[in-house]
Write a structure and sequence with these properties.
With 463 residues, this protein is α+β, with helices and mostly antiparallel strands. It contains 13 helices and 20 strands. It folds into 2 domains: 288 residues, Electron Transport, Fmn-binding Protein, Chain A (Pnp Oxidase, Chain A); 115 residues, UbiD C-terminal domain-like (3-Layer(aba) Sandwich), CATH 3.40.1670. Helix 4 packs across helix 5. The model has no long low-confidence stretch (mean pLDDT 93). It binds flavin mononucleotide (FMN).
Length: 463
Amino acid sequence: MTAVHRAVLESGGPILRFDNPVLDDGTRSKMPVVVNLFGSTERVAAGLGVAPEGLDDLGAFLAALRAPSPPEGMRDAMSRWPMLKAALATRPKLVKNALVQQNVIEDVDLARLPIQTHWPGDAGPLITWPVVLTRPHDSKPDEIGRYNAGVYRAQVIGRDRIILRWLAHRGGAAHHRSWQKAAAPMPVAIALGADPATVLSAALPLPETISELSFAGVFSGARPRLVPARTVPLMVPADAEMVIEGWVDPAETAPEGPFGDHTGYYNAPAAFPVMSVSALTTRDDPLYLSTYTGRPPDEPSIIGEVFNRLALPVIRGQIPEIRDLWLPPAACSYRMAVISIDKRYPGQARRVMMALWGMLPQFSYTKMIIVVDGDIDPRNWDDIAWALATRMDPERDVMIVEKTPMDYLDFASPVEGLAGKIGIDATNKLGAETTRDWGQVMQTAPEDAAFAADLLARLKGMT
Ligand SMILES: Cc1cc2nc3c(=O)[nH]c(=O)nc-3n(C[C@H](O)[C@H](O)[C@H](O)COP(=O)(O)O)c2cc1C
């Protein structure tokens, strides 16, 4: 299934549904598996409630939400996007009868679900699209605004046991620490096959102050519908395909992995908390939503490109000279950045590199930055190669920074968690940056270009 999914995703193909998938014991499941839901930019945009052209507007709205002076920024944003205002103001709707609770199973055997084992070296079945819902210890079940929803991959290690891999800086991990402090088991609900707006909100790095559950309403344009879970004190999406309910012990952990990851390599096993499942609730005839993570392209890399486009206005708000920024999906979506700037003064490219590394936490794992001028398209490798070949000197224009924070997944770093970074200034040099006569870019005269275009059109008409 992973091989078929990958081939279809690479060719820009449709959403796939596998009927009668084979389970580990050789029997067939009646539950279809759906993959490639977010396999194209158009489908990710649709999940966010906009056409691809609307993504830049949505990014501007998100930037306004994060603005350092929220009242001003918000007021402006709200007047420009009244529909979004209405959506943010709506409270989730609590319902009594929910599709997701048409079936309630308390003697759960997760082996009956068609959970994929994706790669030959994977440790076992892995839930890849879990929307993990948690709340802090000092909250009440109806305080939806305090909930966190995150997508953290979940390894199945028994009939009713799952490992939750929330990395230490994630919302779910912060909530877990609050329950650990109180030495109390933590209620957790995992929504599987929630509506696309909820799934994408859970994957989106939203400001801490905004609940992903409420935010899903901004994208879908409808009040999120929630229902009390059956065996844990949490509210869950009423229209999801399935919900797994359970408890996470304050102390118990188990070794997670290895699993093939978005870098294209297997992760080393590491210890993460264990969830004991208390119930599985489902719709009648549910679908199981799945995906793989692997060397790009995969669905997360397509979603990442869209999210980076949404983030551009926020980045520009902090570093205004940035025209465009591209994180090539092929470089694992964040390890490399190409930035085009409107260059005005010597040293500006280095300032921009340091600003990106220093001011914005999401770029602390970006180990290569290439800066180009505004006439270079940072999304076009031919343009980048030309700028590097003609405007860059390795001795003068390369900056190496030592011993900076690094992703533990980056096994090329000399030690875990600490590594170098490289910045390459491929901009035109000006002022004190050079003593040489600098090259002048050649361009066809506009009238000659028009003549050529006209001539070619006429020749085409003759054939
Ligand atoms: C398919 C997929 C798998 C992911 N797996 C993990 C994971 O295993 N652990 C993790 O901490 N983040 C993972 N993420 C990233 C988080 O979902 C994402 O950063 C999200 O914004 C976290 O939400 P939070 O800030 O509320 O914790 C994954 C994202 C996707 C799209």
